[in-house]
Structures are given as C-alpha cells and as structure tokens.
Design goal:
Bound molecules: cytidine-5'-monophosphate
Strand order of the largest sheet: 2-6-1-7-8
Number of helices: 9
Distance between the termini: 11 Å
CATH class: Alpha Beta
Shape: globular
Radius of gyration: 17 Å
Helix content: 40-55%
Oligomer: single chain
Number of domains: 1
C-alpha cells in the first residue's frame, strides 16, 4: 500500500499524512524534511546552491533518519543530530526550495526515498511523490488551498511552535515565493499527477480532509 499526498506549502499535508498513516497503521515519509535537513547541512557548511562539486561531496556524507524517541515523538536526525525543530524555520523553508531545484540534490534524495519505502506500506508526502518519485502509488492525493488561508494556518502553526506572533502578509509573500519556485522549476515541478484526487482544503478542517482520504482508501 502506497499513498502519496502532494501539494503546496502550508496546505496541511503533513498533519493529514501523519494521521492517515496512524489510522492505517503504516509508515509516514515527510520528504520535505529531507530537503530541509539537506538545506540546513549545506548552509552550516557554507555551500551555495550553485557549487555542484561541494554539494556532491556533501551528499555523500549526509545521513537523514526518521526515528521515534522514547516518548513516541517523531524526530529527524541529520548525521545523528536531532534537527527536528531547527529545520522548521522560515529561513530553512526558503533555502530548502532553492536546493530542491538542483539536479544532484533531487537525484540523491529520490534514491533515498525509494530505498526507505521499498517493499513497505507508506504514506509519502511532498511535492513530487505521486508524479515523479512514486508514479506507481496505489492512491494519489493533491491537496490545495487558497494562499491566504495557508498563510493563516502557517502563522498559527509557528505561533504554537515558537510562541511568536507572525505577520500574515509577510508569510503570504513567502508562501507565494516558494509556490512559484516549486511550481516553475525545471525539475519535478509541483503539479497534480494525472490520476491524483484533488482536494481543496480551503474550507475543510483537518478531520474533514482525513475523512475524505480515509474513505477513498478504505
Ligand atoms: O514540505 P516542506 O515545506 O517541508 O518542503 C520544503 C521544500 O522542499 C519545498 O518548498 C520544496 O521546495 C522542497 N520539496 C520538494 N520535493 C518534495 C518535498 C519538498 O522539492 N517532495
């Protein structure tokens, strides 16, 4: 069983994918976290997006793992360091989109994703899961929502996570910028797969989206 959930930033894919995986008792792949971890690592090592040679070396060194800690919380490990919170900042969101347009980055992460999922039941979430990485998936969903509503959701999420109030207009600009990069890049641009079920979540809450997906899959 392989379910893919793709869509733009802040549409709620992560929350929905996690719940669906729990309900079906299968694993969950957050492919965006891999792009984020890579961006953090490249940034810490001062490697720019256009420095292909240095990026190649870095990609050989990088080891990304998804684990559950003793309290059952999902954690992202970058070469044994817990980077779960560090990769969620706005700076890393922007950087992740930049590195995500580079061919060797996508090539290596795609192989890692395929290796993780091979012969296992998964919900894979991201931008290109149903289109380019797992075109053979049993069920493909594409979540979309009005950009302003996505900005509001993201502001709420950041407030809950960091306790800081963010300016919605600023977040909206960042979302539009990132959507634009993700949709217009040459490699694996964001778009629904031909056989994807498209769900507009603008006026739906998380439970309603989960129910719609769960019913289809069941
Ligand atoms: O989903 P998330 O916001 O964590 O992803 C961060 C960035 O990583 C996206 O804006 C996108 O540029 C990139 N990404 C991608 N392909 C994926 C998942 C994420 O290009 N499958």
């Amino acid at each position: 069983m392989l379910i893919t959930i793709d869509g733009p930033s802040g549409v709620g894919k992560g929350t929905v994918a996690r719940i669906i995986a729990e309900k079906l008792n299968i694993k969950y792949l957050d492919s965006g976290a891999m792009y984020r971890a890579l961006a953090l690592y490249a940034d810490l090592n001062n490697i720019k997006e256009d420095d292909t040679e240095k990026l190649k070396k870095l990609l050989i060194d990088i080891h990304i793992q998804f684990i559950k800690n003793e309290d059952g919380e999902d954690k992202v490990l970058l070469n044994t360091d817990d980077v779960t919170d560090e990769i969620r900042t706005n700076e890393i969101s922007k950087l992740a989109s930049k590195y995500a347009s580079i061919e060797i980055v996508r090539g290596i992460l795609r192989e890692m994703q395929k290796r993780m999922i091979r012969n296992k039941d998964y919900v894979a979430e991201g931008r290109d899961m149903g289109t380019y990485v797992f075109p053979e998936a049993n069920f493909k969903f594409y979540l979309d929502a009005d950009p302003y509503i996505r900005a509001e959701r993201r502001a709420l999420q950041l407030k809950e996570m960091l306790g800081i109030k963010f300016n919605i207009e600023k977040i909206l600009n960042e979302i539009n910028e990132r959507d634009n990069l993700d949709k217009t890049r040459e490699l694996c641009p964001l778009h629904p797969a031909e056989d994807a079920i498209i769900i507009d979540t603008s006026n739906l809450n998380v439970n309603e989206v989960v129910d719609e997906i769960y019913k289809k899959v069941k």
